[in-house]
Structures are given as C-alpha cells and as structure tokens.
C-alpha cells in the first residue's frame, strides 16, 4: 500500500468516525488502568457496567487492598477471568503504593511491568491518560489492519503495531487507534462486515473476496 492509499484510508475512517474515543468510562489514569485490565477478553460495555459500582466503592489503590481478595472477586465476577484479574489488581495496587506513591507511572516500560498490564494496556494508558502517541492493537485493530492490507495475515500483534507505527504519522497514532477500533466494532465486524456499503472496499482483501462469493 502506497502513501497516497494510506492517507486515503486514514482520511476515510476519520470521516466515518470523527468522534472515535476510548469507550471505557474512567475519570483518572488509575481508573483507566483498572478498566483496561478488566477489559481483556471482555467487552467495554460489560466493563463499564461493572466499573460503575466498582469505582464508587474503590477510589484509591489503598481501597483495593483493604478488602479480602474474595470480596473484590465478587465485585467483578461478571467479568471474564475475574479471579485472576482480582489478584492482579491487588498486586498492582500494592506496587503502586510502595513504589510509585500511589500514582500510575507515566513510562511505558514501567507500566508493562505491573501485574496484568501488557503492552496493549500500557499503550492505551499512556495515550489516553498522558497524551503520549501510541497504537494499541486489540482484536478490532488487528482484524481491520489485516483485512485492509496494512499488515499481513500472519503478522503477530507486535508486528501489526510496528507496521502501523511506520505507516501512520506519529501525531495520528492515538486517533487512528480509536478510529480503527470504531471501524472494526461498528462497521467491519468479524462476522458480518458491511462490505456492500464500505468506502474502503477497493483496498480491502477480505471485502473483495466476500463480494465475489455473493
């Protein structure tokens, strides 16, 4: 894909989803980190339902470690992998209190060392909480990038991230991340992509194939 095609792609999804944003409800970097940690293998919608009560009950890292693990597990039990996530939240809060003065660190390399925080979570936190350009590759970003030819079918998540970082201007990384998610969540869905009305059909390997078989 050449530079003009990439620009066309970015402008098109920008026009389709000009208001794309992080859909996880949060009011500070700490809440965002907890929400993203909870969102692994779980929809943002479910996470927001759970955190509506969770963030009223727990305001600080100290609050999370003041209760027994079983209580926290019950508070998030509607979330997939809730036992493991509850354990990670308490470990993460302990580290924040003892190593970072109760605050979420701003540095990517420190974030990825926190329990339950992988590269994707760290990218979401630095870009949304601290305005550091980053592209977090979730299931939507990966699927759309591969369908549109921004990455190869067999690329790993890290390879997809690296290719997007090379192809997208740095100042557009965070915005493009949100727009690719919205494009994948509301338009180019896994099961029923809207190929017949897609303005990017001419660039899409998957779409061309699907339209031929109809």
TrEMBL record:
Catalytic reaction(s) noted: 2'-deoxyribonucleotide-(2'-deoxyribose 5'-phosphate)-2'-deoxyribonucleotide-DNA = a 3'-end 2'-deoxyribonucleotide-(2,3-dehydro-2,3-deoxyribose 5'-phosphate)-DNA + a 5'-end 5'-phospho-2'-deoxyribonucleoside-DNA + H(+)
GO-annotated molecular function: class I DNA-(apurinic or apyrimidinic site) endonuclease activity
All residue ranges annotated as the HhH-GPD domain in the record: 38-186
Keyword Hydrolase: yes
Cell inner membrane as UniProt keyword: no
E.C. designation(s): 4.2.99.18
Binding residues annotated for [4Fe-4S] cluster, in chain numbering: 188, 195, 198, 204
Requisite cofactors: [4Fe-4S] cluster
Keyword terms: 4Fe-4S, DNA damage, DNA repair, DNA-binding, Endonuclease, Glycosidase, Hydrolase, Iron, Iron-sulfur, Lyase, Metal-binding, Nuclease
SMART domains recorded: ENDO3c (SM00478), FES (SM00525)
Matches recorded under Pfam families: EndIII_4Fe-2S, HHH, HhH-GPD
Co-factor remark: Binds 1 [4Fe-4S] cluster.
InterPro entries: DNA_glycosylase, Endonuclease-III-like_CS2, Endonuclease3_FeS-loop_motif, HhH-GPD_domain, HhH_base_excis_C, HhH_motif, Nth
Function description: DNA repair enzyme that has both DNA N-glycosylase activity and AP-lyase activity. The DNA N-glycosylase activity releases various damaged pyrimidines from DNA by cleaving the N-glycosidic bond, leaving an AP (apurinic/apyrimidinic) site. The AP-lyase activity cleaves the phosphodiester bond 3' to the AP site by a beta-elimination, leaving a 3'-terminal unsaturated sugar and a product with a terminal 5'-phosphate.
Family under the similarity heading: Belongs to the Nth/MutY family.
Name of protein: Endonuclease III
């Amino acid at each position: 894909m050449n530079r003009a095609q990439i620009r066309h792609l970015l402008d098109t999804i920008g026009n389709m989803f000009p208001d794309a944003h992080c859909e996880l409800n949060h009011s500070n970097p700490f809440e965002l980190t907890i929400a993203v940690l909870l969102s692994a293998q779980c929809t943002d919608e479910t996470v927001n339902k759970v955190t509506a009560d969770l963030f009223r009950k727990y305001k600080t890292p100290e609050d999370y470690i003041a209760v027994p693990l079983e209580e926290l597990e019950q508070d998030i039990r509607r979330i997939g992998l809730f036992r493991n996530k509850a354990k990670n939240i308490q470990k993460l809060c302990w580290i924040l209190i003892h190593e970072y003065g109760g605050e979420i660190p701003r540095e990517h390399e420190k974030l990825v060392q926190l329990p339950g925080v992988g590269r994707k979570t760290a990218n979401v936190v630095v870009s949304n909480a601290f305005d550091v350009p980053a592209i977090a590759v979730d299931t939507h970003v990966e699927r759309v990038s591969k369908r549109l030819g921004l990455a190869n079918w067999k690329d790993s998540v890290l390879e997809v991230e690296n290719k997007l970082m090379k192809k997208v201007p740095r100042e557009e990384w965070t915005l493009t991340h949100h727009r690719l998610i919205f494009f994948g969540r509301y338009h180019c869905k896994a099961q029923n992509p809207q190929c017949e009305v897609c303005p990017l059909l001419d660039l899409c390997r998957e779409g061309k194939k699907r339209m031929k078989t109809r």
